[in-house]
# Entry
Amino acid sequence: HVQLVESGGGLVQPGGSLRLSCAASGTIYNVVRMGWYRQAPGKERELVARIIWSSGTLDYADSVNGRFTVSSDNPKNTVYLQMNSLKPEDTAVYYCHGLIIDRNTLGPAEYWGRGTQVTVSS
# Structure
């Protein structure tokens, strides 16, 4: 079984910064990719940023490109999201997501963290 545990988040003023972390643990054979989604009240969950483990290829939503940075610590199976120049419209629950191969099944499956609240407000 694979688990994703997020940390970080909280309340920040507009223009401020926050850093989210997400560590994957359990019966991991290999990580394909990990990243972050967010869901604001009344809106659908959307991709924020992700990283492909083997190549380091990054993918960002247009709305955060240039302000957010996704990075990884591969040996620790951990992904980070550095969020700078935060705006009120970044307010949402941020979910860690992973496409991970479980060593018990040797097949890729999607995993989600429980989510962490990010609120940008003065």
Remarks:
- The mean pLDDT is 97.
- The two ends are 41 Å apart (CA to CA).
- The chain is about 0% helix and 60% strand.
